[in-house]
Structure formats: C-alpha cells, structure tokens
C-alpha cells in the first residue's frame, strides 16, 4: 500500500457561519466599503452582532431575495464590497435571473452568500434543501462557486472574497466543523486543498462532506490498510484541473462526495474533465439521487444516503 504523509487535526471547530460573521466584522471595522445586505436572514446568518456594531453598513431588504440581489448589484456597481446573505435554497433559485443578469453578466462583484446550504434545513423538507445550486451556477459564466469545508477555508475565503473584484457564490452549512489539518496552507480560489495523501484511492469532497470523507479514509486505513488521498475541492468553479490531472495520472480509483444532487455538481464536473482528457480511472459520484429527498436532520439524511463515514468507506471498498 502507498505511503501517507499528513498531519491531521481533529480540533473542535465552530460553525462556518460563525467564522464568516466574525471575519466579516473584523474586516468591516477597518473598511467602510464593506456592506451586508440581508433578506430577513441576519439571525440565521449569524449577523446580528454585525448589524449592532455596524448599522450603517447593514441593509435589510426583507423576504424579497430577487430585490436583495438587485440591490446588492447596484451597490457593487458603485464600488462597494457587498455581501448578499440569504438561505441558499432561495438565493440560488428564486433569484437566479438576478444572479445571472445583474451580477454575473453585468460583472458586478457581489459576494453571494448562501446560508444553511445543502440539507442543513433538513427537517423543513425539500423546499428548503439546496441541492441544485452548484448545477445552476456552474452554468453561468463569470461566477466563482465555493463551498468551504472548515473554519480555515471559511476565513480565508471571506478575506479573499472581500478583495476580489469578481462575482462569487459561497455556500455554508450550519453545524460545527472540525479543523481538517494543523498544517498552514495557502488558500486560493480554484486550487484544491490536499488534506492527506495515499496511493490507493482518491476521495474528493467539498463543503461539509470533506470531513466524513476524511473519517472514511481513516477507517479504510485502520481496518483494511487502504491509504487514501483526501481532497477538499472547495472551489467547484473554476475547478482545479491541474490537481485532478495529478491525482488521476496515478491510476487509482476516484470517489467524489457532495451535499448536492448527483446531477451537475462536483462529481459531474470532475468526470467531464477526466473523460474528455483520456483518463479511465474507476470513478463514482456520491450525492443525492434523483428522487424526493427524505426529511430529517442533516445527520439523518447523510446516513440515509450513505454520505457518512461508514457509507463512504463501504462505497470506496466496492469501487476498489
């Protein structure tokens, strides 16, 4: 079996939304160009402290997501650094026309923040699940699409977004996320993050699926001696084609894991690149199938669809 070179932490982390809020407060304290626009979402977006500290830099639109994006685009066109915050399920579906035309096509550098993404609102049912956002927004040109996996990636993504003159969509879940690695690494949109390395299998996750993928890698090594490369592909678009080429060239199987439909997300993006460039690695996409999604907590839904440590390990063994 291949060698592994990594230092992996399991330090308890905060919810990425808490890190988003604290980082934004720090940035806003010295940059008055930063504005936050919300759609009755300051509570769920952890932005009550921001509004209290910086009332002149916070704009409340109410439950009107299309207006939210339009107002954010207008403000960004004047040079403001605008973070438009709303539940991902509504932001990316109800406001799709505004994201496409007012933000991306018009090149207004709005930072679109989709909160409680994936099945974070699991108990509220399919209307509140955002399992379509990668697919929809990958098809819109001039838009970066990001899903941070842990607190490190979240902080770095928000700092970089604040200084990036480009439209960006960043999605966050709700639960506390352990730090994936003790190693300080550079963070760049479009560059995946290698969490650990092995020569037998490649596990590629994004957002809150990276940690269960890492847990599965540990289980596979402990029980079966299988050593995996685990990648946090935090940027869905632009995808890190150089990293994909590097890991696929070793010939081992590749398993992608995402809190999204199996259609149009991380897995299909990876598969499309690999197939069209001549790679023939054994390959599997793990995500949500084409059915009415079950209702429950995020953990219950992950377990139901196999997006858990045991489920990913089982799928990996089948692929191997």
Automatic annotation (TrEMBL):
<dbReference type="Pfam" id="PF02780">
    <property type="entry name" value="Transketolase_C"/>
</dbReference>
<keyword id="KW-0786">Thiamine pyrophosphate</keyword>
<dbReference type="InterPro" id="IPR033248">
    <property type="entry name" value="Transketolase_C"/>
</dbReference>
<protein>
    <submittedName>
        <fullName>Transketolase family protein</fullName>
    </submittedName>
</protein>
<dbReference type="InterPro" id="IPR009014">
    <property type="entry name" value="Transketo_C/PFOR_II"/>
</dbReference>
<comment type="similarity">
    <text>Belongs to the transketolase family.</text>
</comment>
<dbReference type="InterPro" id="IPR029061">
    <property type="entry name" value="THDP-binding"/>
</dbReference>
<feature type="domain" description="Transketolase-like pyrimidine-binding">
    <location>
        <begin position="14"/>
        <end position="179"/>
    </location>
</feature>
<dbReference type="InterPro" id="IPR051157">
    <property type="entry name" value="PDH/Transketolase"/>
</dbReference>
<dbReference type="Pfam" id="PF02779">
    <property type="entry name" value="Transket_pyr"/>
</dbReference>
<dbReference type="InterPro" id="IPR005475">
    <property type="entry name" value="Transketolase-like_Pyr-bd"/>
</dbReference>
């Amino acid at each position: 079996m291949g060698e592994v070179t990594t230092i992996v932490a399991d330090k308890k982390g905060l919810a990425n939304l808490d890190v988003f809020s604290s980082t934004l407060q720090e940035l806003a304290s010295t940059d008055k160009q930063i504005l936050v626009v919300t759609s009755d979402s300051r509570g769920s977006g952890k932005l009550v402290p921001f509004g209290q500290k910086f009332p002149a830099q916070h704009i409340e639109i109410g439950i009107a997501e299309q207006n939210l994006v339009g107002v954010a685009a207008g403000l960004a066109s004047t040079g403001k650094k605008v973070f438009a915050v709303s539940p991902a399920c509504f932001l990316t579906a109800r406001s799709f026309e505004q994201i496409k035309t007012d933000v991306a096509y018009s090149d207004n550098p709005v930072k679109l923040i989709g909160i409680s993404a994936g099945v974070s609102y699991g108990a509220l049912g399919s209307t509140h699940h955002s399992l379509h956002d990668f697919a929809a927004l990958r098809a819109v040109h001039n838009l970066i699409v990001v899903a941070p996996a842990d607190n490190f990636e979240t902080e770095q993504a928000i700092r970089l977004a604040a200084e990036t003159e480009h439209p960006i969509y960043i999605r966050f879940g709700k639960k506390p996320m352990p730090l994936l690695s003790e190693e300080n690494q550079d963070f760049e949109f479009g560059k995946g993050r290698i969490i650990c390395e092995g020569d037998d299998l490649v596990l590629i996750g994004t957002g809150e699926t990276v940690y269960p993928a890492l847990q599965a890698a540990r289980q596979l090594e402990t029980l079966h001696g299988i050593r995996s490369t685990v990648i946090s592909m935090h940027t869905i678009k632009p995808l890190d084609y150089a990293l994909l080429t590097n890991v696929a060239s070793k010939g081992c199987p590749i398993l992608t894991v995402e809190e999204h439909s199996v259609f149009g997300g991380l897995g299909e993006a990876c598969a499309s690149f690999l197939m069209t460039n001549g790679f023939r690695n054994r390959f599997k996409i793990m995500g949500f199938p084409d059915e009415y999604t079950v209702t429950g907590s995020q953990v219950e839904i992950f377990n139901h669809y196999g997006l858990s440590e045991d489920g990913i390990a089982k799928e990996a063994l089948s692929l191997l």
